[in-house]
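Morning. Coffee machine broken again, so started the prediction first thing and wrote up yesterday's gels while waiting. Chain of 114 residues, entered below exactly as on the submission form.
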Amino acid sequence: MTNQAGDLILVLITAPSREAAEQLARQLLQERLAACVNLVSGVQSLYWWEGEIQSELEALLIVKARKEGFQEHFIPFVRQHHPYEVPEILALPILAGNEEYLKWALGETGSKPA
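Came back before lunch.
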């Protein structure tokens, strides 16, 4: 595992619509909390909610972000801007990847340019 790969995470977030997902993606990018966000529309989600099995069409955000600050900054930001009461925000480690891409992603996240 490279240092750059270990510094990045892949975050999965579901949203109630393509529009809500795109708005959240743009906010994450503007705040430099994400380097890139892929949107996948038409994801069928089945889950337990308030004692019943629910079935909804959602949009999935696949976010490339820094591991550093995930708990302190990323999660609170998403919770503040997400329409769900309990949004799905799951982080997965990036074990390896194209070094040039990883370097680019790290360069695009972190502090906002002045």
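The chain is about 35% helix and 35% strand. Going to sketch it on the whiteboard this afternoon.
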